[in-house]
Amino acid sequence: MNEMEILDGKKVASALDEKMTDRVANLKKQNITPGLAVILVGDNKASSIYVRNKKRRAEKLGINFQLIHFDASVTENELLEKIDQLNHDDSIDGFIVQLPLPDHIDEDKVIDAIDSKKDVDGFAPNNVGSLWIGEPHTLPATASGILMMLDFYNVDLDGKNVVIIGRSNIVGKPVAAMMLAKNATVTITHSHTKNLSEIAKRADVLVVAIGQAKFVNKDFVKDGAVVVDVGMDHDENGKLCGDVDFDNVKDTVSMISPVPGGVGPMTITALVDQVITLAEGRANG
Ligand SMILES: Nc1nc2c(c(=O)[nH]1)N[C@@H](CN(C=O)c1ccc(C(=O)N[C@@H](CCC(=O)O)C(=O)O)cc1)CN2
Ligand SMILES: [Mg+2]
């Protein structure tokens, strides 16, 4: 049986806070306060919690946080007008539109309206392209948080077989691009992939972001693999769980990120880190 280590996102997040606080203090000495704005539409309960956590975290680090909260009935045009304002607001280094949006609003159109220089979600087409050619400007926070966490635990990706289950623009694709840039051999799989468990079992590092509760069991996991669980699902009792059946794989893996307390907290760390980096860019003219 392996000695298993938990990839503890909460612990990493608080360990990284200290450095980020110092960076903000340094900026303030130069009369620059990093600014982050979040646009929230409607009252989706989970989104409201994430945004509240972003605000708490940003303010704790000394970042100027602005919440723009629209009613669910806001029109697409009103939203686009606000985005235009933020694009031209010099006190805001970066902003995001919290997803998901109500059905009457075209998500792609909204993301496209964000100035790619201020797109701290890294979702704008320019930023996606920059990432894939190896010259990233901003990075999607979940993907970036996963790499920060693996780096903290000294998981070297160079030459490793990485298998990603899930091909979303928010997680699967950017994780693939970022791990390629670290010289990993990356395979992206998804719901149509044949022999999925067989392919997953070749992974030294398995990243699971497929959105199905406890989808991955030990049939998918090589002995000693590092498993990153990006799922946020609910089990048969309505309890929050991941895409990986933790109890089933825990004696097979060498490291695993739990849900909750793994990737989730790193998402917010990666977001605020990126806002600080943009403000540092502003300080350096
Ligand atoms: N514009 C964006 N929208 C959304 C993003 C995003 O990166 N940009 N990601 C998700 C939501 N998200 C941040 O926005 C997020 C999700 C989960 C967590 C988190 O800390 N999860 C906890 C569990 C929380 C719980 O108990 O429910 C954990 O995993 O430990 C943080 C941020 C979708 N929208
Ligand atoms: Mg744009």
TrEMBL record:
<dbReference type="InterPro" id="IPR020630">
    <property type="entry name" value="THF_DH/CycHdrlase_cat_dom"/>
</dbReference>
<keyword id="KW-0378">Hydrolase</keyword>
<dbReference type="GO" id="GO:0004488">
    <property type="term" value="F:methylenetetrahydrofolate dehydrogenase (NADP+) activity"/>
</dbReference>
<dbReference type="GO" id="GO:0006164">
    <property type="term" value="P:purine nucleotide biosynthetic process"/>
</dbReference>
<dbReference type="GO" id="GO:0000105">
    <property type="term" value="P:L-histidine biosynthetic process"/>
</dbReference>
<feature type="binding site">
    <location>
        <begin position="166"/>
        <end position="168"/>
    </location>
    <ligand>
        <name>NADP(+)</name>
    </ligand>
</feature>
<comment type="similarity">
    <text>Belongs to the tetrahydrofolate dehydrogenase/cyclohydrolase family.</text>
</comment>
<protein>
    <recommendedName>
        <fullName>Bifunctional protein FolD</fullName>
        <ecNumber>1.5.1.5</ecNumber>
        <ecNumber>3.5.4.9</ecNumber>
    </recommendedName>
</protein>
<dbReference type="GO" id="GO:0004477">
    <property type="term" value="F:methenyltetrahydrofolate cyclohydrolase activity"/>
</dbReference>
<dbReference type="InterPro" id="IPR020867">
    <property type="entry name" value="THF_DH/CycHdrlase_CS"/>
</dbReference>
<keyword id="KW-0554">One-carbon metabolism</keyword>
<dbReference type="GO" id="GO:0035999">
    <property type="term" value="P:tetrahydrofolate interconversion"/>
</dbReference>
<dbReference type="GO" id="GO:0009086">
    <property type="term" value="P:methionine biosynthetic process"/>
</dbReference>
<dbReference type="Pfam" id="PF02882">
    <property type="entry name" value="THF_DHG_CYH_C"/>
</dbReference>
<keyword id="KW-0560">Oxidoreductase</keyword>
<feature type="domain" description="Tetrahydrofolate dehydrogenase/cyclohydrolase NAD(P)-binding">
    <location>
        <begin position="140"/>
        <end position="280"/>
    </location>
</feature>
<dbReference type="GO" id="GO:0005829">
    <property type="term" value="C:cytosol"/>
</dbReference>
<dbReference type="InterPro" id="IPR020631">
    <property type="entry name" value="THF_DH/CycHdrlase_NAD-bd_dom"/>
</dbReference>
<keyword id="KW-0486">Methionine biosynthesis</keyword>
<dbReference type="InterPro" id="IPR036291">
    <property type="entry name" value="NAD(P)-bd_dom_sf"/>
</dbReference>
<dbReference type="Pfam" id="PF00763">
    <property type="entry name" value="THF_DHG_CYH"/>
</dbReference>
<keyword id="KW-0521">NADP</keyword>
<keyword id="KW-0028">Amino-acid biosynthesis</keyword>
<comment type="pathway">
    <text>One-carbon metabolism; tetrahydrofolate interconversion.</text>
</comment>
<keyword id="KW-0368">Histidine biosynthesis</keyword>
<comment type="function">
    <text>Catalyzes the oxidation of 5,10-methylenetetrahydrofolate to 5,10-methenyltetrahydrofolate and then the hydrolysis of 5,10-methenyltetrahydrofolate to 10-formyltetrahydrofolate.</text>
</comment>
<dbReference type="InterPro" id="IPR000672">
    <property type="entry name" value="THF_DH/CycHdrlase"/>
</dbReference>
<comment type="subunit">
    <text>Homodimer.</text>
</comment>
<dbReference type="InterPro" id="IPR046346">
    <property type="entry name" value="Aminoacid_DH-like_N_sf"/>
</dbReference>
<keyword id="KW-0658">Purine biosynthesis</keyword>
<keyword id="KW-0511">Multifunctional enzyme</keyword>
<feature type="domain" description="Tetrahydrofolate dehydrogenase/cyclohydrolase catalytic">
    <location>
        <begin position="7"/>
        <end position="121"/>
    </location>
</feature>
